[in-house]
Amino acid sequence: MVATRNHPTNFPPPDLSQSKASATRARSAPTHQWIHTPKALTLLWLIVSLPLVVWDTGYVVLRPHSMPGGKWHRPFYTPYALYGTVDYVYGWPAYESGDGFTMAQGAMNVLETIGYLGYLYIFWMFGEGQWVLARGQRRSIGGGWGGLACLLGFALSILTCSKTMLYALNEHFSDYRNIGHNSFSRLVFLYIIPNGAWIILPAYMIYAFGTDILQGLSIAGGDQVSKPARATKLNSTPPPATVASKRSTPTKDD
Fold it and tell me: Would you give the DSSP letter of residue 31?
């Protein structure tokens, strides 16, 4: 007797987990790619301020040779003959008393300058576009290098702003020991305005870099509807088109 074969059980349902995962990834993929484009004012400020900070640091480090009567005072540091009488931190009183605050802020200037040069180097080496200040044509940088440059600029801006505020607060809580001898007009034009620029412009840069960082985090998280995300203008580009898989359509072998 020929035994009849048992009918096979029903085939198990196909595993669609991989297809579901692909579809989920496609739905959750960001619709834009983040880029960092420095504001024109940021670039202008760095172009102007960095040489001035290097010059200022040179004066501090080379004291007393850079001070009036010193061998390097003329022609490099002649303006400090006047400023040293306005702000004694840069004059003979602080130097002769051994006040270390002047050299301490000079050392911070060195770290700050190296950091800003690092930011510009990253932007120059890995950015794309032209070095122009016209809106919509400026050089930009994305990806990991863009994130590093933006984070570096944000941290350095906080450093610059905080250092200058500390400089002013130290004077306030010292009963204006180094600047209290000036008239009001002399104080405004020779102390407040020049030093105030190192508070106002870095504060603007903190906002600019912070906005870019918030944009990048919002895009990475797929968030364009929350209040913080909507508070910033989208600074991004559409992502490159993805190449379709060769097995995206069924074939006879499938």
Answer: S
Structure tokens at 175: 């009963």
Query: Tens of pLDDT along the chain (254 residues)?
Result: 444 555 555 555 555 555 554 444 444 444 558 889 999 999 999 999 999 999 999 999 999 999 999 999 999 999 999 999 999 999 999 999 999 999 999 999 999 999 999 999 999 999 887 665 555 567 888 889 999 999 999 999 999 999 999 999 999 999 999 999 999 999 999 999 999 999 999 999 999 999 999 988 888 888 777 767 666 665 444 444 433 333 344 444 44
**CA–centroid distance for 56 within its chain:** 22
Amino acid at 163: K
Largest Cα separation within the chain, whole Å, is 124
Query: Kind and range of the H or E element at 50?
Result: helix 40-61
Half-sphere exposure (CA, 13 Å, Cβ side) for 53? 24
Asked if 229 and 218 count as a contact pair (C-beta separation under 8 A), the reply is yes
- Give the residues across from 2 on adjacent strands: none
For residue 141, report the phi and psi dihedrals to the nearest 5 degrees: -145, 140
Q: Which helix (H) or strand (E) holds 147?
A: helix 143-172
CA distance 213 to 207: 10
> Cis omega before residue 64 (within 30°)?
yes
Strand, coil or helix: 189: helix
Half-sphere exposure of residue 40: CA atoms within 13 angstroms, side-chain side: 8
